[in-house]
Amino acid sequence: MNRPPATxxxxxxxxxLPGLACLAAGVVLLAFDFGALHPLLGGAGAGLALLVSAxxxxxxAAFPLVLRRLAERDLPAGDQ
Length: 80
Fold this sequence. Notes:
Shape: rod-shaped
Radius of gyration: 19 Å
Number of helices: 2
Order of helices and strands: HH
Structural class: mainly alpha
Low-confidence stretches: none
Distance between the termini: 17 Å
Strand content: under 5%
Helix content: 55-70%
């Protein structure tokens, strides 16, 4: 059975890349103090907000991957 190589859907990329960017920015904001740049960046709330956003975006990026995997497993009606 020849199967094409698995590819990542575009929607997973469009949700996953900003999720990774939010994750990196959230970790940096939690590790260092950026209060001199802007008062909102000085508190821990900014880093936590970006981490929560990263989790939401990465979780949403998993849905297209799961749906593609389920669609590949699904048999056509004539093959059952």
